[in-house]
Design goal:
The protein has 488 residues and is α+β, with helices and mostly antiparallel strands. The protein is 32% helix and 22% strand. The longest helix is centred in the N-terminal third of the chain and has 21 residues. The N terminus is likely disordered.
């Protein structure tokens, strides 16, 4: 949970009726709650991850023609009628040999210059995990023929186009990603394969600035080409690599090589800051300035200093401001203060940040989310601004906010276009469209696990109750509720 300390003065008649702060004796009695409350935060994070894994029905299959029309804004230039000879023998091979041969096949096409597919064999809980991915030359993991690879954090920041290898014994002609209207209709085999896809694409959404990504699934001697965004998975029908259908993979790689980074799924509204650059050094220097700061400022600075982890990229992130000031603003950040480990949904990240136009100014908090585009869901910044203007206490003070232009999920559009006409509103609601959104506030949040004093934790909860009491005593038309409370 994120708690904020407000500096807004009270100016409402309801103040005299507000709850009084907890007494010291009450705080002492509540001290044993500190550990359970922290554990609850951890449990909520685990439940969020499990909910992502249960979202296995968020998949659908379209024809190759529809897939290319929707997601590939270019046409193949190097046409071929070749099939992938030898793939019909894959069912009799081990996954490691298959991944090695597939990577070799794809690299020999030389369709994606400057990058190579690398076969990966990781050791995870005494089990070999086999997969492959595309890396820029010079930034890939070292291939060890006999020993398992070690995929470092640095490799996860640059990997692209993961390849998953699985068996499939299902009878559905649409393959493992066929649309199902109910979660109970997803078979165990489908669920296991889709969960493996989640595991492979999760690093791209967690460690990179992504709007979507593509992936390839090798199923025996067939392939599926996937596009994944925050709403779900869209897959081609299974394509046999031992027939002329195999040329579709050539066509896809040819087109993929000419896609822009934005079309491949990279967010263009951020810029990497080299750690040893003058700007990077200024971030380090600012993290050491301690003059004239209060307790909240000290906490914000300590979190910012901790975020300057040299194993992570430091970024300049743009926010298109929808407040009266307008325009585009930029903020400097390091490692996220928190980030949710999920593929579908909001994908929330929080950063302690510096305004790029005021490098010696106060630290602020930048939240990056994918908000659902649903009726009744107000943008968080609109609600926060509304509460600020009415002097509701203990609400973060808005600096700026805005949608990221042109960044909405596309999966739901295809479900509506090609899905069954009898899909229920509940089903379509679960496949909600999402819009990339950023909000910056003056107050820096503090997660539950960072509280070491039970009195301050209890006081923080009292502030939440106090602010809610004041909000509920506003005139009815002003009682907007701050819907997006982040727990982790």
């Amino acid at each position: 949970m994120m708690c904020h300390a407000s500096r807004i003065p009270l100016s409402t008649s309801a103040h005299s009726l507000a709850p009084t702060p907890p007494s010291p004796s009450a705080v002492i009695r509540l001290r044993p709650l500190l550990l359970p409350i922290t554990v609850i935060g951890i449990i909520l994070n685990v439940l969020r991850l499990l909910n992502t894994m249960r979202g296995t029905r968020k998949a659908m299959v379209v024809t190759v023609e529809d897939f290319f029309d929707a997601f590939i804004p270019t046409t193949p230039q190097k046409r071929t009628n070749k099939a992938f000879h030898g793939w019909d023998k894959f069912p009799s091979m081990g996954y490691h040999e298959i991944s090695r041969r597939v990577s070799k096949f794809l690299n020999k096409t030389q369709l994606i210059s400057g990058s190579s597919f690398i076969p990966i064999r990781e050791r995870n809980r005494d089990v070999n995990v086999i997969w492959a991915a595309l890396w820029p030359d010079g930034q890939a993991p070292v291939v060890e023929r006999r020993a398992p690879q070690s995929v470092s954090l640095a490799h996860l920041f640059t990997m692209d186009l993961p390849i998953i290898f699985r068996n499939w014994n299902g009878e559905d002609p649409d393959g493992p990603f066929a649309m199902t209207l109910r979660e109970s209709d997803v078979t165990d085999e489908q669920s296991a394969l889709r969960a493996e896809v989640f595991e492979r694409v999760l690093p791209l959404f967690m460690y990179q600035q992504r709007t979507h990504c593509f992936a390839i699934v090798v199923i025996d001697d067939s392939i599926c080409i996937l596009r994944v965004d925050r709403s779900g998975i869209v897959s081609t029908k299974p394509l046999s690599t031992s027939t002329r259908d195999g040329r579709v993979l050539y066509d896809f790689l040819d087109c993929y090589s000419r896609l822009s980074p934005e079309e491949r799924g990279w967010d263009p509204t951020f810029e990497t800051i080299p750690h040893d650059s003058p700007l990077g050094q200024h971030m380090r220097d600012r993290a050491k300035q301690i003059e004239g700061e209060d307790e909240a400022g000290t906490y914000a600075r300590s979190v910012f200093a901790k975020s300057l982890d040299t194993t992570w990229p430091w970024l300049k992130i743009a926010v298109d401001d929808d407040t009266a000031a307008g325009g585009r603003r930029e903020f400097l950040v390091g490692k996220p203060h928190y980030y949710t480990g999920d593929v579908f949904g909001r994908g929330s990240r929080g950063y302690v940040a510096l305004d790029a136009t005021d490098l010696d100014g106060r630290f602020v908090y930048l939240k990056d989310i994918w908000r659902p585009l649903k009726t009744g869901f107000e943008r968080e910044g609109v609600t926060v601004k509304h509460l600020n203007e009415r002097d509701v206490p203990h609400v973060p003070v808005l600096v700026c906010h805005g949608d990221v232009p042109g960044q909405t999920t596309k999966s739901r559009d295809l479900w509506i276009r090609y899905g069954p006409e009898d899909a229920s509103e509940e089903f379509l609601d679960a496949l909600s469209k999402h819009q990339h959104y950023r909000i910056v506030t003056r107050d820096v949040c503090k997660p539950l696990e960072d509280f070491t004093d039970s009195r301050k934790l209890v006081y923080a909860f009292w502030c939440c109750v106090h602010g809610e009491f004041i909000r509920k005593n506003l005139p009815p038309k002003y009682r907007k509720f701050h819907q997006n409370v982040t727990t982790y």
